[in-house]
């Protein structure tokens, strides 16, 4: 597609429930990133996929968080047993993987845990 | 480890006034440097980037930034601010040798008075 698409745009869930967030990167972009942005905070790195390489999971805050990506297409970020501190905007970005061209970001998924 | 500092959390300027947003980074070599803008409810949009060469780079929307190696700075400037520039601005760095994650500053919120 023309841009990075994220769904849903908003999600309200009850504490303890699992949620799945989806990211459709730009076609042909081999690199995909997930970031979290809490209210009034900067961007917190979560995970990075590059082609068929093992993902860089160093930013995942706990084992409740996981992410998958099939090939160079869609990625899903799953949060199990959600907590109130998981409330944030989850941003996905993709890039070409050919040198430092900067990312293209999606509009994010606003997650609210009540 | 890389780090990015944006010392100003919030800046207020009058429309038509000049603007400078500060960014300092910590990294052993020259990184790739970026400025992004985020409007309310939106994802991040790339304003400009620096890889090498001319230390003054021009971006979109009339913004420019200057890389100063001696000061480890990459400050963003605009000669005359418009009300539509009100947004949050993020400075980011990426290691120059490999593609990978961006390290973001905490952001500077810009308010523009009419």
Percent of residues in helices of chain B = under 10%
C-alpha termini separation of chain A: 33 Å
Question: Beta-strand level of the residues of chain A, as a percent range?
Answer: over 45%
End-to-end Cα distance of chain B: 41 Å
Biggest β-sheet of chain B: count, sense, barrel?
6 strands, mixed
Q: Name the biggest interface.
A: A-B, 27 and 23 residues
Strand content of chain B: over 45%
How would you sum up the global shape of chain B? globular
Q: How many DSSP H or I helices of chain B?
A: 0
Low-confidence stretches of chain B: none
Query: What is the helix/strand order of chain B?
Result: EEEEEEEEEEEE
Contiguous uncertain segments of 5+ residues of chain A: none
What does this structure look like?
The complex is a heterodimer of chains A (114) and B (114). With 114 residues, chain A is mainly beta. Helix content of chain A is 0%, strand content 46%. Chain A has no helices and ten strands. In chain A, strands 2, 4, 5, 8, 9 and 10 form a six-stranded mixed sheet that branches. Chain A has a four-stranded antiparallel sheet with strand order 1-3-7-6, with no helix packed on it. In chain A, strand 6 (65-69) and strand 7 (75-79) form a beta hairpin. The mean pLDDT of chain B is 90. Chain B is globular. In chain B, strand 10 and strand 11 (103-104) form a beta hairpin. Chain B has strands spanning 3-5, 10-14, 19-21, 24-26, 32-38, 44-50, 56-58, 64-68, 73-78, 87-94, 103-104, 108-113. Classes of the chains: A mainly beta (114), B mainly beta (114). The A-B interface holds A 4, 31, 33, 35, 41-43, 45, 48, 50, 56, 59, 91, 93, 95, 97-108 and B 32, 34, 36, 41-46, 49, 51, 90, 94, 96, 99-107.
Walk me through the topology.
The complex is a heterodimer of chains A (114) and B (114).
Chain A (H helix, E strand, L loop, with lengths): L4 E3 L2 E4 L5 E6 L6 E7 L5 E8 L14 E5 L5 E5 L8 E8 L8 E2 L3 E5 L1
Parallel strand pairs in A: 2-10
Antiparallel strand pairs in A: 1-3, 3-7, 4-5, 4-8, 6-7, 8-9, 8-10
Chain B lengths: L2 E3 L4 E5 L4 E3 L2 E3 L5 E7 L5 E7 L5 E3 L5 E5 L4 E6 L8 E8 L8 E2 L3 E6 L1
């Amino acid at each position: 597609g023309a841009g990075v698409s994220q769904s849903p745009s908003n999600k309200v869930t009850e504490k303890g429930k699992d949620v799945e967030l989806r990211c459709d990167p730009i076609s042909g972009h081999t690199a995909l990133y997930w970031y979290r942005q809490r209210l009034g905070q900067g961007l917190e790195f979560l995970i990075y996929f590059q082609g068929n390489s093992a993902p860089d999971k160093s930013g995942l805050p706990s084992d409740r968080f996981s992410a998958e990506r099939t090939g160079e297409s869609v990625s899903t970020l799953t949060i199990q047993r959600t907590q109130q501190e998981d409330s944030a905007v989850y941003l996905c970005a993709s890039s070409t993987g050919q040198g430092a061209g900067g990312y293209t970001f999606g509009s994010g998924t606003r997650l609210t845990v009540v | 480890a890389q780090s990015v500092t944006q010392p100003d959390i919030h800046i207020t300027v009058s429309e038509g006034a000049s603007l400078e947003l500060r960014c300092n980074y910590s990294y052993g070599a020259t990184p790739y440097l970026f400025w992004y803008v985020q409007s309310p409810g939106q994802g991040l949009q790339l304003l400009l980037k620096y890889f090498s060469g001319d230390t003054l780079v021009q971006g979109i929307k009339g913004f420019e930034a200057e890389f100063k190696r001696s000061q480890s700075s990459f400050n963003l400037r605009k000669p005359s601010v418009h009300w539509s520039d009100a947004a949050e601005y993020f400075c980011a760095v990426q290691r120059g040798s490999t593609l990978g994650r961006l390290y973001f500053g905490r952001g500077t919120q810009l308010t523009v008075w009419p």
